[in-house]
Design a protein that fits this description.
This is ITPR3 protein. The protein has helices spanning 26-34, 38-57, 63-72, 75-83, 89-104, 130-135, 139-147, 149-164; strands at 2-5, 10-15, 21-25. It is mostly helical. The radius of gyration is 21 Å and the shape is elongated.
């Protein structure tokens, strides 16, 4: 299976055992699988397992796998599939796991110093200037923040939607977006 996408739609292309070339939008595959088309259901299931394999290959920052997979499945593509409400929740969850292991949990990570509630007087500086503060800012941090802005907005919208429901997490299918196996 290979994948192509425009701004709105993702297309899967594959060659079957008879060397016949096929292509279909992922939305169309999902729609026809829901309607009972066994072949499209099998293709979608195969693709879901392929995504899970890719995510597991990238666990614990396996940089060789991350490098190859991130070139083929970029942030924008994965986000487009995560946010597509026409896709089944388990497929969207596979894209969420892939995003986590390929693009979010990877280098470079910035060191976040925990707040110290107890200090020695000698560790407290006698003077702090704005220049000292600005020298600690990292421009690449803003670039990373902008790269994942749509993902952060998706997560925030999802969580706000869950909180506003009368019985949060009552929809078992929708819960697949928040449960990692």
């Amino acid at each position: 299976l290979s994948i192509e996408y425009s701004e709105e739609e993702v297309w899967l292309t594959w060659t079957d055992k008879n060397n016949d070339h096929h292509e279909k939008s992922i939305r169309q595959l999902a729609q026809e699988a829901r309607a009972g088309n066994a072949h499209d259901e099998n293709v979608l299931s195969y693709y879901r397992y392929q995504l899970k394999l890719f995510a597991r290959m990238c666990l614990d920052r396996q940089y060789l796998a991350i490098k190859e997979i991130s070139q083929q499945l970029g942030v924008d593509l994965i986000f487009l599939c995560m946010a597509d409400e026409m896709l089944p929740f388990d497929l969207r969850a596979s894209f969420c796991h892939l995003m986590l292991h390929v693009h979010v949990d990877r280098d470079p990570q910035e060191l976040v110093m925990p707040v110290k509630f107890a200090r020695l007087w000698t560790e407290i500086p006698t003077a702090i200037t704005i220049k000292d503060y600005d020298s600690n800012l990292n421009v690449s941090r803003d670039d990373k923040k902008n790269k994942f802005a749509s993902t952060m907005e998706f997560v925030e919208d999802y969580l706000n939607n869950v909180v506003s429901e009368a019985v949060p997490f009552a929809n078992e299918e929708k819960n697949k977006l928040t449960f990692e196996v």
